[in-house]
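Researcher: Final request for today, and then I'll write up notes for the group meeting. The sequence and the SMILES for flavin mononucleotide follow.
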Amino acid sequence: MASGLPKLSQKFIEPLTIGNVTLKSRVLQSPLSGVTDLVFRRLVRRYAPDSMLYTEMISATDLHHMKALPKLIEIDRNETPISIQLFDCRPDFLAEAAQKAAVSGADTIDINMGCPVNKITKKGGGSSLLRQPELAAQIVRSVVEAVDIPVTVKTRIGWDDAEITILDFAKRMEDAGAKMITVHARTRSQGYTGDAKWEWIRKVKEVLTIPVIANGDIFSVEAAIACLEQTGADGVMCSRGTLGYPFLVGEVDHFLKTGEELPKPTPIECLQVAKEHLQGLWDYKGIHGLYQSRKHMTWYAKGFVGAAALRDRLCRIESVQDGMDCLDSAIEQIANQDVFEAIASEDMVEMIAMKQ
Ligand SMILES: Cc1cc2nc3c(=O)[nH]c(=O)nc-3n(C[C@H](O)[C@H](O)[C@H](O)COP(=O)(O)O)c2cc1C
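Model: Predicted protein-flavin mononucleotide complex:
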């Protein structure tokens, strides 16, 4: 479909190099705890064959104590390019976890230095590392030493508005050996509220030589283009925009490569993908997957008459069959509505023609 969006520079169809890894796409699917498991990633991969995907964040301490590796670190051999994201504050545990992640098949190791959740920051991980830049640098150095694959960092612009430290912090990460940095352009105290301050990504880009990936408020192709234009970043990472919408990364990637917008999936197509997602979660995780599927299902159900009532049902499903029945009847209802609207508009055309 021809697009009214501006053409971006040639750079965006060129590969993105992260140390010794080359990506054919500059659009990345972010790590999302409770979301980017194997089942979700398979859906994203279908529409975005070249994009880097990320696992959910995984605690290096947990990995150290576990006898068997958890599902969190499990990746498909054909999922590549994929990054395993780790969090923790102990350089030795992170180095050990990175080795396990490399054996699991990760193409890169990403270290989470942005998570704002108290449970994580109280233990010294996630965004609390923004306040301990020397420890953060030591972590990067020990992980780089432990593995042959590139090590990257995902972080925020600072702790709060009075403490925006990203320029110094990002430079330290680069000097410690990080091969790429993703900047979520919010402070820790913002959580997920307020606008992402993309202007800080531009400033980071000016002081680093490694690739800088822009993150925050990328909910559409238009937003991705605006962000890339305003920041000059080397790529863009989609996050909440992909909840119930595993098409977004592929849509942005397609636009960057061709200058054309893909047609949006219809509500029926979205609900059909929701059915696959539900079945996948059940097959992969059993009852736990079913419970997790409730939130996913409600995210898919939007943009059509009756969506609110459907969401209300989906967040209480008790079995896969229950969920499938809800989704099937919504699909049938939308299809009947479409037929009704098509007939109504044909009648209208006929009436206008008769009047003339
Ligand atoms: C439900 C949820 C889970 C998240 N889990 C992670 C995570 O595991 N690792 C991480 O680095 N960021 C995580 N994030 C942050 C996102 O990757 C992203 O940085 C943030 O949502 C900003 O982008 P957005 O404004 O486009 O959503 C999470 C965000 C949400 C909403």
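Model: The first strand starts at residue 16 and ends at 18. The two ends are 34 Å apart (CA to CA).
Researcher: Thanks, that's everything.
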